[in-house]
Amino acid sequence: MQSFQIRLAELYTAVFDRAPDAAGLAYWSDELSSGKMNLETIAANWMTSQPEALERYPQSMSSDAFIQAIYANVLDRQPVTADYAYWGTQLDNGSVSRDAFIAAIINGAKANDSAQGQLDAALLANKAAAGIAFAEQGLNDQALAAAVVAVVDSSAQSTRAVGALIQITQDDFDDLPIALEALGHLLANSGDQGLRENTVSYLESIASNVYNADRDVLFSSIRETLTKALAQPAELGDPQSRASESLALAGNDDAQQGGGDDSAVLTGIFGVADTFSIPAGMHHVQISQFEADLDKLSLDEAAGVPVLYRGEADTYALLAVEEFDHTPGQAAFVRGTQELVIDVNGDDTITSADIVISMPGIWQLEDYNFI
Known about the structure:
The structure is a single chain. The chain has 16 helices and 8 strands. With 371 residues, the chain is α/β, with parallel strands linked by helices. It folds into 3 domains: 139 residues, no CATH class; 102 residues; 96 residues, no CATH class. It has a 6-stranded mixed sheet with strand order 1-3-8-7-6-5. The chain has a two-stranded parallel sheet with strand order 2-4. Helix 7 packs across helix 8, helix 8 packs parallel to helix 10 and helix 12 packs across helix 14. It is globular and about 70 Å long.
């Protein structure tokens, strides 16, 4: 499923210059995974039947203008004269359709191993990763989807920073644009790698520790911090402390989240194979940015027994009936709460002695890996 989503997110970037909306990504992913359509027929459908594409690229649009738009969407740069000449001829004489041209630019960006080609591939991959993160948060606002993609560049730092901002939003994304604007301005105007790394650390630290903070105040603090840091990098000289200050200013309080030594928040990196090791005695864990076909969990030590994944259930009430059978260490994923639960002692009841792992954004676990 994840590979389908990545390819669709690339297509969303190329055609619409935005992240996929949650509803759209779910629908078209189902079309792909079910075999009803392939990527080529989806691209053709978008270009010939979808109002958003028809408005962006009317038939009256010249081939040169179309080429320029797609290059900007995918590569964030303009074509050279030779590109206009070659592709313009192909488009004008009908040798290549507009949807086929888009596919060629996407595939070319991923296949070119030159220095520029590697930057192009990284940019496209980063835009796709940020797009998936946006959709997995359940967001559908198209203007916000465009703002998310606009911030991303070819650096891994930009993707991690955007992913952290999306995670911070949770269900309150009204003020996300002001933070995205500040982040985009910083990334576009600073090549200081130390500042970029500190920016990522600052945002990821907030994302890993945000509970019931006032998002209006929090995003305002993020904007102010990033704006100051561009002129004075020392503002983020200690990113973790600055993150704590922003959270405190927003009235963050982790008391309602359980706290204690048996809780943890773990954050992965989009597009990078992470292994999340759950320490012994850890019973309540939140894992963000977990990719089911890429990342792995190490759970045996924490559970104290081998973990056997039994499948999925809609609610906790169904676990004992449909998933668990008194075998210690059995696990099931609860769709309704997006939690992985491990019945450590095999009593078919989830208590404080069992392990509950929250993984927001994970929709299915066919490729789940336990170590």
